[in-house]
Each structure stands twice: as structure tokens, then as C-alpha cells.
Here is the input.
Amino acid sequence: MADIPVTLSRAQQITPARYRAPGDLVFKIIILVLSSVVIALAFAMAIILWYEARPTFQAFGFLSFLTETTWDPVAAVHGTWPFIMGTLITSFGALLLSLLPALGVAIFVSEYAPKWVANIINYTVDLLAAIPSVVVGLWGVFIFAPFMRDTFYMPIYLWAVENAPWLEPILGAPSSYNLATATIILALMIVPYTVALSRDAIRLVPREQKEAAWALGATRWEVMRVAVLPYARSGIVAGVLLSLARALGETMAVAMLIGNRNRMPFSLFGPAATMPSVIINEFREAVETLHYTSLMAVGFYLFILTIGINLIASYVQRKLTQQRKSP
Amino acid sequence: MNLQLRYARDRVMLIGIVGLTLLVVVPLFLIIGYVIVNGIGGLNWNFFTQELGSPSRAMLGRPTGLVAAIVGTIIIDLIALAFALPFGIASGIMMSEYPEHPFTPVSRIMVSTLNGMPAVLMGLMAYALVVKNTGGFSALAGSVALAFVMTPIIARSTESVLRITPWSLREVGLSLGLPRWKVTLSLVLPAARPGIVTGVLIAFARAAGEAAPLMLTSFGNNFLTFNVRSPMDTLPQRLYSLAISPYKEWHAMGWGGAIILLLFVMITFFVGRVVVDRMEKRALGLQAMDKPKKN
Here is the structure.
């Protein structure tokens, strides 16, 4: 097409659109100011937590507070190591417990189930994510914890005492609220996130890839194994990491079910504590300055842990989408 | 490996996958079932009209109820919504309508960071910002903490809803000579309204179920109060203290409170799902219209 010389009329030359509409500028500034408050909020969080925790860091040192294993508000000695361990044990335990069931659900709804069954299961699983943590905790306290202790923990423990004494320190005497129950409930609470994210990853697998496997005579499971799962792998990994971040911060149900014991070593059937649970349980009674600032410091470490895992997850996810776009 | 073996393995895997699915789905029904069965008996006229008072009140059989918690939840959550709404919606508009602005990527990262933050930390922040500076636990501090929880959820859902509103709508407006702000306010937002409202509702339900930030800010109160500068009761936080209390009568009341919380969350959830599904279907239809037809 040949270039057609464009001549603007006088009116257009004099008044470009942006002078005719000062509203645009005003609107943009309002939006900008309001949304920069949200941006500031994220920065403020790090700064406030650090600022409030400063006396603790000054008293114990940034790293020795991390590795100190005693938490004794009466003696004014504070260390966050037991809670970090508690958080990591419950979170990774919950992740291990939930991974296989979550993958099972994701595969079932996206590849096996007829549409209406898949719809029902999707609704149910998403609803599970919507149930308030404190309601799950209530159910755990009154129904699940006593049931688990009487049906599983007691017999296992009694068996171990007689037949495998070396197991005893790992298991510990079963208390009503303990590490194992909290981990199982935590697993139940993060399943919906893992399911939702791996479902999305599996849905991205191209049809041709699956059809190629079918054409080679693969059975349904073999199609899953050779065509679907390898392709969705990095999406599933990102989903698992995001679920891990959820597990780290899950507060109420864990605080109600873990039994709250500040001293290491933790045992499987004995009480323990996590970072959010210690904040919830002790914050309202923290009258001494050092106790208060130490709880803030626990919050600060929790913040760093969560943000670290979120960043890794989004890095994995971004890498995934770039890979898909480039070829 | 022969064919029979491969078929057998296929079948075993199918059974395994169905079993795992049941393992996830069954506990949900268990929880809902137990809450309804145990809680329905506790719901009576007193439950909705009486204050909780001291434990002796329940043990002596005098009328007690959770009216303070129900009223407090409504007050604190509505104030929180008023705080969160302008910031959340504005961030959503920023991220979807001004993709070229250098602030947008920063905004997006920060919103998703805040979205992943545990709610306890929101409580700690509200404590340091509000409770410490105003001299005591208050309902207002609780609202601020819940607003921190709501804002990133509203921002993200608004963004995703605005993005599925068809691009042609904006083009129509711009081609008529409307300035950008008018296109956003009078074309895009109205078209996306059901979705935005749903997102707000979901954020509201999510915050209404949060107990952790409220325990650090609004503290709880056994008596009914309308003063937002004093400690106030809320359902999730009250549920926690009822559940860990040693009184049987309070446990029964806890189950009753759980029903109300659960019902509220489930209703918002289903309303939200229906609206989002419908919007997505409509968006798909309009996107099909966007594409030029091949003759």
C-alpha cells in the first residue's frame, strides 16, 4: 500500500486529546495514590515488624535469636528455634501427607471423571478451602483429636512400648493435642490449594501430546505417566510451594490442636508449637517488653520465611510460562 | 510387560485415584455434618438475643447467647470493608486498565505478596500501628487488621474480572471520543460489576472467618457494645475461646456459632461461584464475537 499523506485539520493540531480531557489526569492520580498505599503496605509490614522486634535483636543478636532453643518469658530468655522447627515439621509433614491425595484429585477431575462428577468434586474441594480455620479447629478439638488418640495413637504407643522400645522417644506419650493431629489437620487444609494449582497445570497439557500417547497404544494410566505428568511437573511444583507457604502461616486450627509446648525436643504424639501458634497463644499475655518484642521477632522471621517461599514459587511459575511461550 | 499386566495396573491406578479423591472429599462432609448435628440444638431465641456474660451464667442455666459476637462481627467487618474497598478496587483498576504504567508490575508483585501473607502478621501490624498508638485494644484496630486481609483479595479479583471484560468494549468507548477515565468508569466498571461485587463478597467472607488478626486487635468482650473504640466481640475469635474453655455449656454454644459462620461462608461461596461462572461464559461468548469472522 502506498503512503497516503495525512494532513491534520487545524482543530486537531491545536487541541490533542490530553488537553481536552483533564479528567484523565485527575483519575489517574487518584488511582495511583490509592494503589500506592497498597504497595506501601507491603513494605510497611517488613519495616514495622522489624522495628517492633528491634529490642529483641539487640538483646540476643539477629542470628543467636534464631538458633537459641530456650523460650522462657519468665527468665527473659527468648529463642525462636523450637517454633521454626515446629513450623517446618508440621508444614512439610502436611505437604507430604497432602501431596498424593491432592494429585489424585487433580488427575481424577481433569482426566478421569465425567464432567458432572468433576464439577461436584471441584465445588467440594474449593468449599473446603473456604471453611474458616477456626471451625476446622473446633471440629478437631472435639471430634478428631479424641478419635485419633483413642483409635490410633494409644494402641500404637502401647505396642511400641512392648515391642519396639527404640520408637518410644520418637512417638512420645500420646497427649490429647499433639503434633501428629495438627499435621493431619494442616494437610487437610492445604489440600484445596494443591488441588487447584495442579489442576490448572494439568489442564495446560496440550491435547496433541495426550493423543500421541493414546495413538501409541498407551493405557489411561500410561498416558498420565508419560504425557501428562511430566509436562505438568513444574506447574505442580509451583503449586506445591504455594501450598507450603499457606501451611506455614496457617494459625487457628494449628494453635488449637498442637498443644503448645515451647521446649524441644518434640515427639510425634506429644505437644509442640509453631510460629503462628506461639504468637496467638502468648501475645495477649505478653506484658513484658522483651516478651512482646520477641513475639514480633517471631513474626518477622515468619514474614521472611513466607516471602522467601512465595518468591521461589513465583520464579518457578514464571520460568514455566516463559518455557511455554518461547518455542 | 504384557498387555494383561498393563491393564491390571491401569485398573489399580484408577482405584487408587478414586480412593484418594474420596479421602479428600469425605472429611469435608464430616466437618459440615458434625457442625450441623452438634450445633443445631444450640440455636434458640436466647442464642441470638442474650449476652454471653461470665461462665457461671451458662452453668447456672441462666439465658446466655452470642448476640455480642454476632453484632460485633457485623460492625467490625463492615467498617473493614469500608476501609478496604477504595484501595482494593483502585489497585485492581491500576493493574488492569493501566498496564503500561511503571507502577503496575510493582503493584502486582506487592498484591500477590500480601495475598500470601499469614493473617496473624496482619494482626501484628495492626497492633503496632493502631492499638499501640491509641492506647488499647479496640474494634477499630480489628477493622484495620481485617482491611489488610481484604485489600489484596479485592485487588486481585477486581483485576481478573476487569481483564475478562472484552477489550472491544473499551474500543467502542474510545472510538466515540470518550476519555479513558470515562470509559473505565461508565463502561468497563458497570460491565464488570457482578464480578467485582462477587470478589468483594468473597474477600468479605474470607475476612469474616479470620480469628487470628482479631485476637491481637479487637480482643473480645463478653458483653454487647457499640463503641468502636472499646474491645468488641467477634464470632471467629469467640469460637476459639469457647472451644478451649473448660465449660460444657460453652462448647455447645461454640458449635452453634460454628453453624452461623459456616452458613455465611458457604452462601457467599455459592453465590460467588454462580456469578463467576456466568461471567466467564459471557466473556467467552463476547471474545468469540471479537474475532473477525472468516468467510
About this structure: The two ends of chain B are 52 Å apart (CA to CA). Residues 47-290 of chain B form a domain with the MetI-like fold fold (CATH 1.10.3720.10).
